[in-house]
Amino acid sequence: MTNSKTPKKENAAALSGDASMLQDFFIDELKDIYWAEKHLVKVLPKMGKAATTQELKDAINDHLEVTKTHVSRLEDVFELMNKTPQAKKCEAMAGITKEGDDIVSDTEKGSITRDVGIILAAQKAEHYEISTYGGLTTLAKTLNLQKVADILYKTLQEEKQTDETLTQIAENNINVEAAQEVE
Hints:
Layout: H1 21-50, H2 54-80, H3 91-106, H4 112-142, H5 146-179
Helix pairs in contact: 1-2, 1-3, 1-4, 2-5, 3-4, 4-5
């Protein structure tokens, strides 16, 4: 949990035993992104270690700490929904991170081109998270779960900021330096 207070249960009538199909879908998608965030906590340190420039290493390590907060927030959301936090394998994130591993394997250690690839892979993950948190925020509002929507929206904004940071790193120097690398 992100704070010492226990979140108050939200919308008890909507969360009674008679869950709608939409609410069931919403919870299933929460399980999916919960797995994705927990998986990123495991993957990000490897990506940071593989990065060449200190700026990218720092950005990845900073986002690792933010991602740990996202996991905790999702646990708060589950509690608000009277559900036990449960992860369901996110095939999309598993594929995106596998592709990131392949990029690291296919690029030369210590090259700026590797950093370009890591940024690209990281942005693919961020864009998946942005679309997921955006959709979940909207669904939470539809289900009258405003506290849940507020939590998810905060995470959505942080994912967007990470994507912007990665773009700035790429545009400020890495892409130009990589364009000058030769085999």
